[in-house]
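Note to self: the last two entries modelled the partners one at a time, which told us nothing about the interface. This time every component goes in together.
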Amino acid sequence: MTTEDAPKSRMARDVELLWGLDSPPRRRGPKPRLSREVVIRAALDVADAEGIEAVSMQRVSKELGYTTMSLYRHVDSKEDLLVLMLDAAMEGAPPGPRADGDWRAGLEEWCHSVLELYRHRSWVVRVAFSGPPGGPNGLRWMEAGLRELVGSGLDVGEAVQMLMLLSAALRENVRLETEMADAARTTGNTLTEVERDYSRGLRRVVTEEEFPTIALMLHEQVLEPQPTAQATERAGEPTHELDFGIRRVLDGIESYVRARGTTGGA
Amino acid sequence: MTTEDAPKSRMARDVELLWGLDSPPRRRGPKPRLSREVVIRAALDVADAEGIEAVSMQRVSKELGYTTMSLYRHVDSKEDLLVLMLDAAMEGAPPGPRADGDWRAGLEEWCHSVLELYRHRSWVVRVAFSGPPGGPNGLRWMEAGLRELVGSGLDVGEAVQMLMLLSAALRENVRLETEMADAARTTGNTLTEVERDYSRGLRRVVTEEEFPTIALMLHEQVLEPQPTAQATERAGEPTHELDFGIRRVLDGIESYVRARGTTGGA
DNA sequence: CTGATAAGTGTATTCAATACACAGTTCTAG
DNA sequence: CTAGAACTGTGTATTGAATACACTTATCAG
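The predicted structure of the combined assembly is written out below.
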């Protein structure tokens, strides 16, 4: 009944961690020269510069000119540090509400902002766990996305569901992009060559009989970059095949909301 | 010009690895007592029983009664072993073509089969890298999904795009499910309690002003399980809120294909 | 002023991946 | 039929990471 109340689950603990609700205010002892914020920042810098694999407690502490163990005064474990990094990485502001109330445009904008952020910090999408958002930054992005979705006419539960689906698609897409880009950099090839190599590999094992549709895909060179498709899009935002998927999802929402409005709805 | 032809990218290498196109046939030397297949199987068993974290080279070799280093005769690295495990984990057969040609039903079926598989082997969705499918099993699943998508009227490129989107959503959803379930098991709470804890944590930091939509979500108890919603669905397949998202995606495809049929398309 | 307490250090432990040299086995060439 | 080449599994050592624990020293509360 003292400290043994109920072992908080990870996600609940993370919320407290991310809002600094843990760690009681200090009274005695030397003033800390390090701080949680500084540690997180240093870890971010390492991740930005050399990827998430480069982030070790030793590396981060070295970066700061302290010993490895000093970090443990400010974060309980490396896992906690990662959780903190993930929220901190989402620092930028998501797009605000649109004047015209166009939820489709708003959501596309939101998706593109997320993509931009993920592309700028591609290590974020490689961290496996990343539960539901719990920190100030993560929640801010969630709020912005949910706002648009609810604006479409979905109820909140439906909106949450669609937000998860969209986020998953964005994450995964950037993860694949990044993997390709890494493969290219590592092997010293261009992206096109990497894709061609992969296709060529598949062609060796994909038979018309067992994998007719994949064979068709290889035949139509879907994996190789389509110069036409990219050139057709306007030049501003980085527009990709992914936009096709996003638009289909928006179509799906639109047709659902419309049908419900007609039939039974709120 | 001898062995230094072009450093194959990961994905291209993986295809060869997964189809056993590496490792030339052996001529001399003692007959291997171990084999790649046996190693993979043992690794799968460990992962199934104790999760992916439990899979170490030492653990797998111990399982087989061999030394750690013996494994390296059969796989080049742990990473290769993981790639092999991932494909091997997808062994079950995806649903075959439907007699009635109903692509919507076919895709829902496909999604549910994938979900079943992922839920049965939830460690699969925790492995971060898992590039595009390259092995026999992964390609079989891909083929089945693509087949239905192309059946809807999408062209192959569009189908690939939508398959990626759907897969990402399924993966991510199971990942979250699993995380919740783990949190519950670890803390000895029920799933409901874990969700309530998380909501309670959020309520402490989410203000009406800064996060109006999330506040609404908390107010409507979206995160707590809705007994009504689940009871409404038929009892057969495990049906979740996720099905809502899947259906919207199918709606989106349907309306797109229909519109294109009317307007310009092939 | 003085002792409890906290910050950062140093050292040691544990665990994982994997490089490398070796011993024993089996196939092939002469 | 036999010598050695080539290959299997073993033993040992190295490296890198996370983190426990004991220690020194700086503060501040009483």
